[in-house]
Amino acid sequence: MAELTIDAVVFDVLGTLVDEPAGLRAGISALDPSSNLDAPGTEQLLLLWQRHIEREQRRIVDGDRPYLPSDALDREAAEVVARAAGAEDPGAVATPDAVESLAQAARRLPPWPDTVAGLARLAGHFPLIGLSNASRTALLELNAHAGLRWHQALSAEDARTYKPDPAVYRLAVTVAGLPPERLLMVAAHAWDLRGAQALGLRTAYVARPVGDPPTPSDRFDLYAEDLADLAGQLGVS
Fold this sequence. Notes:
alpha/beta, 6-stranded parallel sheet, 9 helices, 6 strands, 11% strand
C-alpha cells in the first residue's frame, strides 16, 4: 500500500460521530409516554424509519425520485413510524405536533463518548471537514447539539443528492483545494468509504456498534477502534 500522506480529514457524521439510533429511539419513545410500546416494538419502529430513509435516498441517487433534503425525508419517516405505532398500540397515535417532534429527533443525536475529544485532538493537526447526508439546517443543529468541532461542515444538500453519489464527496475535494488522495475519509460505514474511495480519497474505517462493517474484500487505508486510535495511527499525540 502506498504511503499515507494526508493534508485534511473528512468525517461522516451520522453513525460515525453521533449515535443516530439512540436519538431516534428517544424520539420514538416520546411519541406517547403512556403507550405500551415495549423495547422490541421500539426497535421495529426504528428499523422502519431506517429502511424508509435508506430506500428514499437510494431512489434519489438513482434518479427515480426528485431531490428532497433530509428534513423532508425525516418528516416522511416520522409519519410512517407514527402510523405504525398507532397500529401496534392505539395509545401511541400521535398528534401532528408529536410527529414533528419525532422528525426533529433526527437532529438531537448524542455524540459517541470519544467524539468530542477526538475531534478536538485531530483539529490541532488537520483541517477537519464534516460531510453529511443531513441537510444544511439539520447539520447545523446536529453540530450544535452534539458539540462537534469543524473547520468546515458540508451538506449533501449542496450537491442535491446523497452519498454515495460521487458529487457529494467532490464537495469536500473542492473545498479542500487538494487532490483527492490527500484527503482521508473517515466513516463507520463501509458503503460510505467505498463511495469516497471511488473518487480517489484515502479511507479510514472507525468501528461503531451501529456501523456497516467492512467485508473481506474491502481494502481501506486505516482501521481504527475509535477516534483516539485513529489519531494515534495518524501520528497525532
